[in-house]
Amino acid sequence: MTQTDPILAAITAHRAAYDAFQVAPEGDASILADEAYREAGDVLIAQACTTAAGAAALLQHLRWWLVEEAAFAESYGLTYRAAQVRVADLTALACACWPVAVVGLDPIHQAIATAETAEAAHTAALSGLDESNEVQMRRANAAADASSAAFQALTFVMPTSRAGLYALAEFYARESEEFEPMCAGGQYLQHLAAAMKGSDSTGMISGLSPAKAASDQRLVCMIPRAAAHATSSARAQ
After folding, report:
1. What ranges in 73-183 are assigned the alpha helix state H?
2. Which of 112, 103, 14, 58 is nearest to 222 (CA)?
3. What's the angle, vertex CA 115, arms to CA 117 and CA 225, rounded to 5?
4. Rounded-to-integer distance, Cα 43 and Cα 48, Å
5. Count of CB atoms within 10 A of residue 195's CB?
6. Whole-angstrom Cα Rg for the chain
7. What is the pLDDT along the chain (237 residues), one digit of tens a residue?
8. Which residues are CB-neighbours of 190 under 8 A, at least 6 positions away?
9. How many CB atoms lie within 10 A of CB 147?
10. Is 99 helix (H, G, I), strand (E, B) or coil?
11. Which contacts of 1-8 are long-range, i.e. CB under 8 A and separated by 24 or more positions?
C-alpha cells in the first residue's frame, strides 16, 4: 500500500494557517493565529518530501508563499530564507531530471507559438488604428483580449523537456527586451537562458556524472514520463 507523502499534509496545514491568519480579528485571536501560522511554516520547511509529486507540490506552494509574503520577508527570518533555499534546490533537481527529449512535442512550444501569434495579431490591429472607428476599436480590443488570454494560458503550461525550458526562458527574455528595452530583467533572462544551455552542454545540469553509469543514479524525476512508459510497454508487447 502506497503511503501518502507527509509533505502534502504540511502544505495543507500551512495554507490553512495562512488563511486563518488573514481573517483573524485584531487582538488575541490575531496573535494566536499568527503564532499558529509561523509554527506551520517551520514544520513545512523542516518536512522532507517522500515522493516526486510531493516535491512538485512543495515547490509550487513555496513559490506562491515567497511571492505572497515578500514584503514581510524579514519578519520570517530563517524560515523565509530556508524556503528560498528549498525552492532553489527543488528547481535545480527538476531541471536535472527533465528529459532531453520526450515522446511527442513538448506542449510549451505550441503555447509559445500561440502567444506569439496572438501578440502579432494585436500589433497588426494597432497599426494605423483609427480610434474614432468603432469597428477598428472593437477589433483591436478583441485582439488585445486574445493576446492576454494566450499569455495567461502560457503561464499554466510546464515544459516537459530541457529544450522546452530553454525555449521558454528565451521567449520571456525576448518579451522583456521588446516591452522594456535595456531593462535589467530582460538581460538577466537572456543570461539565464544562455547559462542553462551552456551548463547542459557540459553536463552540469544533466543529472548524470561521467564517472558513474546511469544505473547508479538515485535522482527522482519530478516530471512524469507516462508517455515514455506507455511507448515502452507497447514495444514490449
Report:
1. 73-76, 78-97, 107-126, 134-154, 162-179
2. 58
3. 125
4. 10
5. 13
6. 22
7. 567 899 999 999 999 999 999 999 999 999 999 999 999 999 999 999 998 888 888 988 998 999 899 999 999 999 999 999 998 888 777 766 666 555 567 888 999 999 999 999 999 999 999 999 999 999 999 999 999 999 999 888 878 777 888 888 888 888 887 777 766 766 777 777 777 666 555 444 444 333 333 333 333 333 333 333 333 333 333
8. 170, 173, 177
9. 21
10. coil
11. 3/50, 5/49, 5/50, 5/51, 5/53, 5/54, 5/57, 6/47, 6/48, 6/50, 6/54, 7/44, 7/47, 7/48, 7/49, 7/50, 7/54, 7/55, 7/57, 7/58, 8/54, 8/57
Which three cell numbers mark 150?
494566450
Q: Which amino acid is at 182?
A: M
Nine-digit cell string for 134: 468603432
